[in-house]
Write a structure and sequence with these properties.
- The protein is an alpha+beta fold and 187 residues long.
- It has a single domain, classed as SH3 type barrels (Roll).
- Helices cover 30% and strands 34% of the residues.
- It has four helices and ten strands.
- It is rod-shaped and about 105 Å long.
Length: 187
């Protein structure tokens, strides 16, 4: 009988040891997963959501719904149901809904894409002479054409958005700090 007790004791100890090992392994995996996920940036989550229908909220615009078309280091681009594009600086985004739980590998966007900031996107609009409606962080909306993009501002030639930029249609030229841009919607 005493031999049976020893076998039971050893079996119990082996079971406890195996359970402790499983718990330690599970804790280590969880710690590594948390540490790995801590490297994921907002742009990595957004890049994994390209072509998804999302809802983006800013204080100045409220909710904007559209298909996530492109993502840069400081911005995202939505295409609304009516086909208009909306450039949103990430600095003023309050919430994003509709993304999957996936994330792109941090840093996998490449060196060039990682450097495509808000100024680069705005320079594209200026180069194409695209009429835009600019929503400021105050909620004010200005329409016109972005003439030039400086280090930390844009020059907006104000004119009705449904008219081409012509000297006679420009009402004023305003300097807009990049920090004041909540959204730039193409027409």
């Amino acid at each position: 009988m005493s031999g049976m007790r020893w076998q039971e004791l050893f079996a119990d100890l082996e079971g406890e040891f195996a359970e402790a090992e499983r718990a330690d392994h599970a804790a280590e995996v969880a710690d590594r997963s948390r540490a790995e996920y801590a490297r994921v940036r907002l742009v990595d989550r957004l890049r994994a959501g390209l072509d998804l229908d999302v809802t983006v909220t800013t204080a100045a615009t409220g909710r904007i719904r559209g298909r996530l078309e492109s993502v840069g280091a400081e911005w995202l681009l939505l295409v609304e149901a009516n086909g208009r594009q909306v450039l949103l600086p990430l600095a003023h985004v309050l919430a994003i809904g509709g993304l999957s739980r996936q994330a792109a590998e941090p840093g996998s966007e490449g060196r060039v894409a990682a450097r495509l900031g808000l100024r680069h996107a705005l320079r594209g609009l200026a180069r194409d002479r695209t009429p835009v409606a600019v929503v400021l962080t105050s909620g004010d909306v200005l329409t016109g054409t972005i003439d030039r993009v400086g280090e930390d501002f844009v020059e907006l030639a104000e004119h009705p958005v449904d008219e081409p930029r012509r000297a006679g249609s420009v009402r004023a030229v305003r300097l807009l700090p990049l920090s004041a841009l909540a959204a730039v919607r193409s027409r």
